[in-house]
Amino acid sequence: MEYPAHSPRKFLGMLQQYRETQLLFAGISLKVFDFLTQDTPAEKIASLSGYDERNLTLFLNSLAAIGLLEKNNHQFRNTPETELFLNQSSPYYLGEYLTFWNQMTGLDQVEELVRLGPDPAILKQNQGKELFDFSKLARLTGVEVRTGRVQSFLCAAAQFVEPTAPLRILDLGGGSGMMAIEFVRQFPSASGVIFEQPGVADVPEEFVAEGHLEHRLSILRGDFMTDPIGDNYDLIIASGILDFASANLNELTAKMAQALTPSGYLYLVSHRVSDDYLSPKESIVGWLSSHLAGLDILQTRSNIELALTSAGFRKMEIKPLDGAIQNLMGEFYTVAK
């Protein structure tokens, strides 16, 4: 009998990752992490929650086995990361965001869509309004943005921007508006505009009001693909929007170039999709469900770079950042005028 030359370990590992992900979402749904700020026995959690003590103990053991909890002398507690991101009392709680994002990008219907094809209406309109609740997404990403993306942006911006410069900024398609909000907090002389579609703009408006920043940040409602976006900006933040510009990519990059002052900057965050649509895998898989449904929304990195070059943009060199935020850093561009 001949034995196979390769091991099925890869597939068994994927199955294990799937099971661990199921445990994560079960823990979020059951809210068990809210009980585990300090060492706590399973029987106490069962008493407080009403859950079955026997099965809760087995479940907590599994969460500890995959590294979401610590166990000591029959007591459980959150790991530091779990306490920070999965306990609802934390200002950085991401449980609801993770659940929503999983629902939005889930692949439960992949088999049916592969067999039957996309929705003709979605395929024709290519906007995503039928698939996504953009307002809820903006609200939930308000916290997620502050877990690394804002920090990398501010650290990179500090390489180009004077701390007290009276900058005028534009957060284009800003979603929660958190990039602009944290920027004006970091740079006390800065002010500007958050531009969002009418169905989403109430979200950044609420966050601006919560931060008492109405005198420094205004909300502009409209379709930035077709509507005027203003001018004389010293900095434009374009986080994720060029990937979805579709047929308007060249027009949008030209519009941004015209809206900047001669010494202004563009801060760009994109999905960096390869020409063969094979990488990065997080983007390819993450947007697969929407693409199968009929959307065609991811621009390749080379298409984005070509549009930027055509509009006169030139990429700036950014010094490496410390720690994990380096991986979340976008790119700075300037434009010759």
UniProtKB/TrEMBL annotation:
Presence of the UniProt keyword Transferase in the record: yes
Alphabetical GO biological process terms: methylation
Record domain O-methyltransferase C-terminal: where: 168-282
Keyword Methyltransferase: yes
Every O-methyltransferase dimerisation domain range: 15-87
UniProt protein name: O-methyltransferase family 2
Protein's organism: Pelosinus fermentans B4
Annotated GO MF terms: O-methyltransferase activity; protein dimerization activity
Keywords: Methyltransferase, S-adenosyl-L-methionine, Transferase
